[in-house]
Structure to design on (330 residues):
């Protein structure tokens, strides 16, 4: 055997490990969540996140191996998220991967977290039709990318400041929610009217995004208004976010011929976004692809599969033997 890949992901608040086999099939995927730890703070507390990774990383890796029914000797490589993310959290995954790689005599491949997310679009179902435009909307990132296949991903634009998920979380906190704020904001928005004219930052400025101005506008409105309606604030905030996401996605689909439009990241759980994206796809005749949420949020299978692409599609040249015991950027 010796062809399977162990993936490790610790860039934020989830400790994750997964195994993919020689054909790129996911054999196990384990995610240990820290939600209980961070909920009380209304956001992720980096120091606590790193400490929790230290405690859970080895049990999570062992569980992934156990569920896949293999021993470390059967691995071809260890793939680990090298960034971007919270530095303390990343270091736990990177050091663990380096130590396991040294102990087990396996090469270690450092995978860019965003490449993993983009790969997650086609993780299990393999129903993405190429070329595809991908919208990544998570707690850490907001970006649009265009892909002609797993080996070729072009970044069209990303956020200049806050991510969409982060603004949902901050607005959620202003409206009295814990972490994550997204689901609470969604629920309040459904009961409200989008009657407040919040700004749509950078809506007509290319494929890049900006959300900090919108977040500040909501904060100013909350401070300066006596008895604000939480429902109307949420509905107006969500309406502004949807206008920006859908307009920029429409522009990308018009400019880059796409067979499918894929949405990944935690904010893909938003029913308002799913509905708006369905409307956009009906209009443009592009197929909408919404991967199951367990693959859309942080997981290690996407990291292992990005490394699988690297090893099997030979995207980067040096043979794997040369990578032995060094962490290579990918
Ligand atoms: O992808 P993810 O799980 O983690 C990162 O890689 O960052 O995304 C988490 C983000 C949080 O900001 C959370 O508020 C948001 O996804 N989120 C939602 C919903 N569920 C989670 N945002 C809007 N509507 C939701 N239903
Ligand atoms: Zn992520």
């Amino acid at each position: 055997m010796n062809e399977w890949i162990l993936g490790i992901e610790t860039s934020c608040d989830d400790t994750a490990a997964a195994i993919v086999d020689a054909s790129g099939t996911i054999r196990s995927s384990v995610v240990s969540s820290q939600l209980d730890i961070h909920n009380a703070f209304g956001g992720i507390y980096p120091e606590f996140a790193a400490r929790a990774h230290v405690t859970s990383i080895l049990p999570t890796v062992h569980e992934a191996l156990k569920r896949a029914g293999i021993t470390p000797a059967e691995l071809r490589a260890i793939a680990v998220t090298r960034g971007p993310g919270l530095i303390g959290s990343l270091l736990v995954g990177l050091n663990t991967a380096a130590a396991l790689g040294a102990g087990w005599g396996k090469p270690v491949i450092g995978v860019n977290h965003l490449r993993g997310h983009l790969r997650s679009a086609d993780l299990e179902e393999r129903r993405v039709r190429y070329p595809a435009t991908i919208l990544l909307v998570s707690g850490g990132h907001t970006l649009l990318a265009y892909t002609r296949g797993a080996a070729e991903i072009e970044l069209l634009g990303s956020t200049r400041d806050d991510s969409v998920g982060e603004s949902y979380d901050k607005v959620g906190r202003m409206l009295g929610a814990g972490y994550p704020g997204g689901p609470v904001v969604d629920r309040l928005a459904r009961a409200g009217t989008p009657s407040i004219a919040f700004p749509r930052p950078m809506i007509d400025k290319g494929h890049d995004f900006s959300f900090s101005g919108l977040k500040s506008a909501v904060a100013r409105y909350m401070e300066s208004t006596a008895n604000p309606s939480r429902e109307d604030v949420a509905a107006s905030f969500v309406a502004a976010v949807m206008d920006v996401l859908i307009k920029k996605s429409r522009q990308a689909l018009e400019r880059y011929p796409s067979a499918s439009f894929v949405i990944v990241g935690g904010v893909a759980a938003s029913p308002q976004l799913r509905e708006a994206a369905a409307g956009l796809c009906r209009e443009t005749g592009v197929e909408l692809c919404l991967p199951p949420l367990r693959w859309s949020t942080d997981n290690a299978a996407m990291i292992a599969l990005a490394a699988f692409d690297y090893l099997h599609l030979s995207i980067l040249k040096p043979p794997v033997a040369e990578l032995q015991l060094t962490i290579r950027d990918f």
